[in-house]
Request: fold
Amino acid sequence: MINPKWRTYALGLMALAIPAAALGPSPAWADVTTIFDVSGDFDNGSTLAGTVTVDVTTGNATAIDVTADSFDFTDIGTQISETGEYIIGAISPSNTSHLFLTFPVANLVNYAGGSLSSDTQLDNLQIPSSTSLTSGAATPSRTAEVVPELSTWAMMLIGFAGLAFAGWKARSGFPSQRAATA
Reply:
């Protein structure tokens, strides 16, 4: 005969396994975000400087804070992959200029930095003109800490609650054991 204590533990573990199965397979960690310092020189003598935050797990840029030719760019307008290059389109707050920051890779998944493409362009809409990057680089400056996803935290809490319940039940005794000792 199976010890009732072990049967209760087995039932408790099965109860914990049901939510895990319902959640299905998912990555245990959230996306990894890397902040890149970008810098470069344009053919009109102006410079490019700032940071771009990239989710290197999904390959999407999530934030930009760049200055080019005295224009500040803090809004990402568009992101596309075109002819083997990945382009992040940014708009100045006054909508007077556009920056097309071009990386010489098809996507930014697992991107580790490198040179920027000479196809990077700065369009000044006040005086219709365009300038191209002559040299530039994207250097990783820091990677954000990886944090467990919400579902991982939920499963850990359910597991700890199950362990606490099993410990409490074992300490207080099972109803069948209390009846036998009375």
User: Anything to note?
Assistant: Strands lie at 33-42, 47-55, 60-68, 71-73, 75-82, 85-91, 97-103, 114-115, 121-124, 129-143.
